[in-house]
Write a structure and sequence with these properties.
The chain is α+β, with helices and mostly antiparallel strands. It has helices spanning about 45-50, 65-75, 80; strands at about 1-5, 5-15, 20-25, 30-40, 55-60. Strands 1, 2, 3, 4 and 5 form a five-stranded mixed sheet that branches. The longest helix has 14 residues, at about 65-75. About 5% of the residues are buried.
Length: about 90
Amino acid sequence: MLIRNNVCFVYDVEVFPNFFSVTIKNTESGNYKQYEIGERRNDLPDIAKLFLHKGIVFCGYNVIHYDNPIISYLLLNYKKLVLKPV
C-alpha cells in the first residue's frame, strides 16, 4: 500500500519487563521484520534508523496512545539509551 507515494509500514510494539519488540510489515512486499531489545539482542540502533527514515509512512492499531509514545521516547533519548547495557 502506498500513501502519498510512500511505502506504508504497519507496526506493533510489545513491552515486557525484560523484553521489547517491534514487528513491522512492509505492505508493498509483504515482508515482516522483527526488532528486539533484550538479553539476546539489542536492535536499538536499527530501530532508530528505521523510524528516522524519510519516505516511509508508519501506521498501526493503537499507535497514538501506546506505540508512538514508546518509539518517541526511544528516539528522543537515543544517545543515553544506546550506551546503557541491555
